[in-house]
Amino acid sequence: MPLFRKIFLATTFGSFRPNKSPGLSLPPIAKRMFLLAFMTEFIVIYPFYVIMFGQRGHVSAAGVGALLAIWMVASVIAEVPTGIIADKFSKKWALVIGQALQLATFTVWLVVPNFLGYLAGFLLWGVGEAFLSGASQAYLYESLSDAHRTIFGKIYARSSAFTMLAYFAGSLTAFAIGPRYTILLLASMAVSVVSLGITLSLPTTHRQVQIELRPTILSSAFKAVRTHPVLRHILVGAVIIQGLMSMLGEYLPQYYQQVGAPLHAVPLLIAAGSISAAGLYWWMHHAETQISRYQPLIASGFLCLFVASFWAGTVGAVMGMFVFTRVLRMLSVHNESQIQHHAPREARATVGSLYAFAGKILSAGAVSLVGVFAVEGKIVIPLRWSSVIGIMAFVLVSLYFFATSRKTSSHPPSRTAS
Fold it and tell me: What pTM was computed for the model?
């Protein structure tokens, strides 16, 4: 086998199992999870909550920054413990708790419109987000039959497509309502009630494992990462891509504005990004084998186009970032589906939470560094070069795994498959 081909076959970050049942229809549970994914993110207060803090609650800019920081810290601290709870007790009820906490967030914001109320809401939201992040993918995976697990990449990508459609629909609805904060909060509460009802109606998975005689769940998760090269490859690559993508997402509106896009065009670009991402997620399963096999090549190739866009004027810079972030989203969703496929069943939600925890830490560090190296408030240059460094790290890590792993299996170990 030629060396070039061996390198990129060996740096797959865990090839997903090929779809052996191309005509297999989506199971009913997948369709219910699609609806839940949409309703969970169809929250019309999203585009306005930061503005609401200042206008309705009279919170200063420094206070808003403190609230956002507390939200992130709460989510990070709760990430791994909530994954352990989901694995030890019930993934369905972890989802129920997460949905209930999201509903409580908007209720508190409505009833107590001041700094302390917003602080309490963010603490609830941060913990609720942690409950949802590790358990949702694990619940979906464990609810599928063995046959449908062969198309989990397709199912999870389409679930992500519904999430992006929810962002788009929520933004349009919020635009139509305007800054009427009481109505926005009541509407968000109503949607959260529907999400909670859907979650309560979900069946309980019957793949629970008796773990009393096993090591602790967290130890099992770390052991899986340490002893299974494929899972380790997936996680390292996924964390780099997720951290980079989250960082770009935080600064995307500012980037578009600072490279010369008209201010009124920025929301349209964000909305177009949601729709294009939904379409990409819907169809990406057709190329899942190629995505797995050539991730480093895909990432580095589009990085070159992104770098070239630095000197292509406003239109080129906007399109370069637009396309680059779509590709990162595609790789991120693909890797997240692979994590569930290769994680051990007794710690599946915990492994997902470890991934989310590491991704959030990396993203927070990257966001902070971009702010530190911004020149007179301009984040364009540090944002661009942090993207370059991120993808270079991704490719170098892939080559490292090629050099240190003489062989990797495209199938998970037998104990993790069920």
Answer: 0.75
